[in-house]
């Protein structure tokens, strides 16, 4: 069970006012808020431990290294990776995707095919288009239906011996659809293709078990799960990480360097060139601890309650249409009101202190599918309340009245 | 009326309102008075792409004065455009180039002209000034 009043005390930002009204934060799918427990870790790091890691013999550097590597272990445990060196700390989801897309170039050739789902964020489309341009491989799209679900029979038909890679998000950022990734991975593996799952939207809601999923690559950004921006995770299976060449050159990622030849460090350092976001990594670990302290089952069940409540209340508004009505979906509601531009609704809601996202949500192909310029997206987290949803519904009604 | 006189007139109109909702309602109503761009000019060439709402602007010269017509697919954006066009349309190019938009701050709509706001209005003001500059060059 979630004690939401108590949880809200952990988030100082929820006390602030916006445009004279108490902040109601429903843009959680863009970034989640940060609890005091994580903020404290950031302050503590810079107050007591700030040093460069992995190479200093002095105490401060050793302590900072222990904290950073300790965070890696927490993250490994959370995602249930087999080895700690399969946890590559990145600057975020986009970085993880680009790392794999860039390094995979050497393994693809003309005639190979890569599949991407119709539900993807631009960051899980563009790097693969660039990869295909470099290698001559072909990008094919797994289509979706009107409800915003991937059409599995079409996916099956697209798979062949030519398929080398499949990219799919665990949960769609624009619609909230939860994709059947275990099945998707299993089917890809039958033809020998690797699968990268974009977990940016799933990580705040569910606890993925990368071994159980048998996923080849899984990418996450810490700021979606109560951690700071600028740090994230690329999980890769050991065998794949060994096959891929390094992405960036620099300090940390080398074994021996001469002007004739450089040998690379082992995992995970091969993919972690340069001084990492040390404080961010440690805070990422703290965020994982924080969420596990609340418990993912409790989070999922409470957020589902919020989703059902908000869906019912919003659908009572005449002319309101919800995009993305998959059977399996998370606490994201993308909607429009007939004849009203989403930007206008977002602007009016902002005047009432309600933060929602408007626009195409970096998923233009989905907007094109529905033939709309964008939507209003309200995304809920475990620290939101039904009272806040009531305020949203009232706000949408007011906006409709003013804008019609 | 000069640009400054029109701006003062608008400031006075907005001073009647007590809260944001009334100001916004008035701005939305003003949007309905916007001299609409004719469909032949509502082309991709005349589009100013903000990230989220589209804005179209067209200008022509009449008796040494620049006339603007415009449109937007978002109502609030359209309201702000109507205010800007009321200020800058039918003015000499030189006055448009020299004119400022600080009155928007005074009437409590400052946030709409923030460069970080994805509505295309900052680009629209630039475009209005570019038109004026082009016509000023012709006059010289």
Question: What report would you give on this structure?
Answer:
Chain A: Belongs to the class-V pyridoxal-phosphate-dependent aminotransferase family. Csd subfamily. Chain A: This is Cysteine desulfurase. Chain A: It is an enzyme of class 2 (transferase). The complex is a heterodimer of chains A (404) and B (140). Chain A is α/β, with parallel strands linked by helices and 404 residues long. Chain A has 2 domains: 4-30 and 295-403, Aspartate Aminotransferase, domain 1, CATH 3.90.1150; 39-293, Aspartate Aminotransferase, domain 2 (3-Layer(aba) Sandwich), CATH 3.40.640.10. In chain A, 40% of the residues lie in helices and 17% in strands. A 7-stranded mixed β-sheet of chain A has the order 4-10-9-8-7-5-6, with helices on both faces. In chain A, strand 1 (17-18) and strand 2 (21-22) form a beta hairpin. In chain A, helix 2 packs antiparallel against helix 10 (278-294), helix 3 (59-79) crosses helix 10 (278-294) and helix 4 (93-104) runs parallel beside helix 5 (126-135). Chain B has 140 residues and is an alpha+beta fold. Chain B has a single domain, classed as Sufe protein. Chain: A (Alpha-Beta Complex), CATH 3.90.1010.10. Helices cover 48% and strands 14% of the residues of chain B. Chain B has 6 helices and 3 strands, in the order H-H-E-E-E-H-H-H-H. Chain B has helices at residues 3-14, 20-31, 75-88, 93-98, 103-106, 121-139, and strands at 47-49, 54-62, 65-72. The longest helix of chain B has 19 residues, at 121-139. The two termini of chain B are 23 Å apart.
